[in-house]
Design goal:
Blueprint: H1 19-26, H2 33-38, H3 58-64, H4 66-79
Length: 80
């Protein structure tokens, strides 16, 4: 975790949590096709079930998948 001297949170640590750091902790906990393959569970293909464009990993599903990105943007727009 980084120390940001201009924005002090608890104990002087920045209250900003980087998404990539958060995703690293979740990478093996969320069931994705990539994780199933690591556990030697056969899947038909490893492409994203939503967009079919890239390997289905946690980081792809939450950060890179264009379809989930559009859904999230649409939800934010509707909520205000």
């Amino acid at each position: 975790m980084e120390v940001n001297r201009s924005t002090r949170g608890f104990g002087g640590l920045s209250s900003v949590i980087h998404l990539s750091d958060y995703m690293t902790g979740l990478e093996d906990k969320i069931v994705t096709k990539a994780n199933l393959e690591k556990k030697v569970i056969l899947v038909k293909n490893s492409l994203c079930s939503i967009c079919g464009e890239e390997e289905e990993t946690t980081s792809h599903m939450f950060c890179k998948c264009r379809v989930t990105w559009l859904v999230g943007q649409n939800a934010l727009t509707r909520c205000g």
